[in-house]
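Q: Hi! First time doing this. I have a protein sequence and I read that you can turn it into a structure. Is that right? Here it is:
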Amino acid sequence: MNEESYIMRTKKEVPIWEKALLTLNEASAYTGIGINRLRIIASHPHNNLVIWVGSKRMIKRKKLEEYLDKTYSI
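A: Yes, that's right. Below is the predicted 3D structure, encoded as structure tokens:
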């Protein structure tokens, strides 16, 4: 067995509610908000919801929860 197959078999999935960073798809599933609306929300620089990992946009889960707690409508 090579190292890559060992890692793949022992790698465990982390539940969404325990992840610090979410993809747009995960954030959409977690909140029930559509991906396009999340893109709009995340594009505002004052929200501080996004961290870029290379060219991949990741949503900070805790910041997203805080934003949603304070927001009346989206």
